[in-house]
Amino acid sequence: MARLILGSSSPRRRELLHLLRVSFEVIPPKGVEENLSERFCEKELCELSHLKAKNVMLRNPFSTVIAADTVVVLDGLVLGKPSSVEEAYEMLLVLSGRTHSVFTSVSVMYEESEFSFVEKTDVTFREVPSEVLKEYAESGLSLDKAGAYGIQDYGALFVKSIAGDFYNVMGLPIGRLWHELHARGVI
User: Confidence class of residue 1 from pLDDT cuts 50, 70 and 90?
Assistant: First the structure.
């Protein structure tokens, strides 16, 4: 197998890729803007993960590169990573008691081939008291996460139900990724 590279700086994606039980390196993309439109567009999300994979592949030819991008979407609007505690709190208030969707686009480049896919998971939040949401936002846990929460940390307490891949909500639909890589003989 060619050298496997995770083109991401996300510690959660690194943790999840270990589930494949293969050796890999982490080389984040450089200079790739993550500016998505306010309105969700699946094509735009795919282009972003593709751009990240290509950025890493150009610096590391003859490798297999995996890159991904995850967004939270509510009522057609993208909730990205909050830029402040206040913005995180506002996002959490909007999510409380409602169902939102988490989309992850994964792009893989290897040899002369490449492919991408998008995984969707619907997440329903419980009605959460505003003071609890404020405490979570102030903890700093929400600042590096799309939608301002992590399902793998204290944010899990807000979740009432999930329809789809749990690991997609963490940022990498590892089961689908394994299937896609295995079906193509990459791993």
Answer: low
